[in-house]
Amino acid sequence: MRVVVALGGNALLHRxxxxxxxxxxxxxxxxxxxxxxLARDHxxxxxxxxxxxxxxxxLQGESFGPDTAQPLDVLDAETEGMIGYLIExxxxxxxxxxxxxxxxxxxEVDPRDPAFANPTKPIGPVYDQxxxxxxxxxxxxxxxxxxxxxxxxxxxxxPMAILEIGxxxxxxxxxxxxxxxxxxxxxxxxxxxxxxxxVEAVIDKDAASALLARDLDADALLMLTDVxxxxxxxxxxxxxxxxxxxxxxLAAKTFAPGSMAPKVQAARDxxxxxxxxxxxGRLEDAGAILDGTAGTLVAR
Length: 300
Known about the structure:
Layout: E1 2-7, H1 9-12, H2 21-41, E2 43-48, H3 51-63, H4 72-94, E3 100-102, E4 106-108, E5 121-127, H5 129-139, E6 142-146, E7 149-154, E8 161-162, H6 165-173, E9 177-179, E10 186-190, E11 196-198, H7 205-215, E12 220-225, E13 230-232, E14 240-242, E15 244-245, H8 247-251, H9 260-274, E16 277-282, H10 286-291, E17 296-298
Parallel strand pairs: 1-2, 1-12, 2-9, 3-9, 4-10, 12-16, 15-17
Antiparallel strand pairs: 4-8, 5-7, 6-7, 10-11, 13-14, 16-17
Helix pairs in contact: 2-4, 3-4, 7-9
């Protein structure tokens, strides 16, 4: 099978965990250990989130002054290279002899996408309300609640086309494990002369992963996080896991925006467009999700 696996930000950095190099490397090792068995039996393409990392790089750049701050598309590229390197290294350690490549991936978005006027994608660390409001005033940020805390949010336009899809296909066809479209890819818009320019945004990783899986004619799309399944009535005494569902059944339900809702939407889009199976669940259950014995499965 050809399987696209999307590693959620919470799979790479646990909730409340310090954004240290050691923590990230330890978590990538655990992620690689969960993915290696899949790579032995299937064609594997890996994507990943970057919300905490891109926010940290933005803060680091701003700490030296406004002239040193890098635009978000450049920070997206930096995090894609950093996390991609770690995943490539750890998979290589576990799968000696297998070819693995991490690829910077540009993804075209529409400059007229309404997301640019309505930032929703959380990045960086969490703050209490007073901190968040002060940072919003001082730095011109948009901040929104994230659970009981607050985070900076940025535009998240819909992905339209993956510029490097031809290269990715060539690598996959040569049995290379490809790490690509990390952090939702690098957002670019087409210029009037036909070239491309980066834009201030962070594309949703799950939406980009669904597009990638469709373009590669993948058989399955797995979105791995720190929750064991999609839950109906999450956060209430009536919460219960949804083990199997059609895209139409999920369309009638409501899920938390910014966390589970994008995953459910990506699963619906992939299953509807391809007839393949989308799975959502815990990183350590990756193999069981693909086998249909864990997580939430979405299929027509």
